[in-house]
Amino acid sequence: MRYWEPGTYYALGDVVEFEGHRYKIIQAHTSQSDWTPPYTPALWGRMDDHDGGGERHEGREHHHRESESEKRHDYMPPTQSGLPSGEGVNVHHEERQKHWYDLDDHRKKELEIGGGLAAGAALLAGGYMAFKAHEKNEDEKKAQTWSLQNWMHDAEARTAQYRQFGPRGPATWIINRGKNIPKSAITVGKEHSWDLYICRAFYDGGIQVGKASDAFKKGAVIGYKHEEIHLDTYEILVGDINGLRWVDVHGRLNVQSLGYTPVEGGRESDGTPLYIAEAPHKGAVHPGKASEKLDGAYIPYDGGEKCVKEYRVLCYA
To answer: Distance between CA atoms of 303 and 31, rounded to whole angstroms?
Structure first.
């Protein structure tokens, strides 16, 4: 049995052992020291430990003492063909740029049966709150799962590039999990005694901009339809503030009048670009979002969202 190691390229079909459990690759990648299989469900699927396919390295008593964080990632999405998740279908880069509804019915069925939705399903099973399930029909859920895993795939690739080659400019989005904030994360301000950073994450078909802090219960908070959404898997903006500048805005944003190029933020589910804002509220300056369709900057706060008319947008200097 091959043991998982950092700094190793793993291709589709590879199986490794880590901490006495076996995992099968979902997305090909080069491993990182903090991308261990239990904590990267977008990359690895947990296999059945009882199928005789490998030596066990823990006793029965230890198995029953698994931590809750390990149990969250045990899910292997079932497929109609019985294939393990991630087998039977390859998803090409160009295809990932398409919306689920733009795929023909035959291709959608291939993706469903062959495990092409496995990474997104694993994220959902691991506790990622991508949408409100009771508000979606089955096809909408598949569309959201497809979009979620494509966002994660792009984010993981961008992060791997950053870690291998370093920053390509003053601002880069990289994947982060939980409350461990990278040292290079761009600080916006303080609320009480904790620092606030800029984050974004997939939710309900879009990529929403919000705020991160080691004081938050999961690490990141985004605002959406007047609600706060707490997430522990998100992208955080890292870089050098000396290559950036905050530009004053009042009311609805007009990108052409900024005089500078705004840093990439996110997008609404309809494709409307979202930009990175900072806005004062209750004695602190909070990260949030702005767009040419919003009346001001929207920041997640106190279980909902606040609209602030006087704010600033992050641009390249």
So the answer is: 37
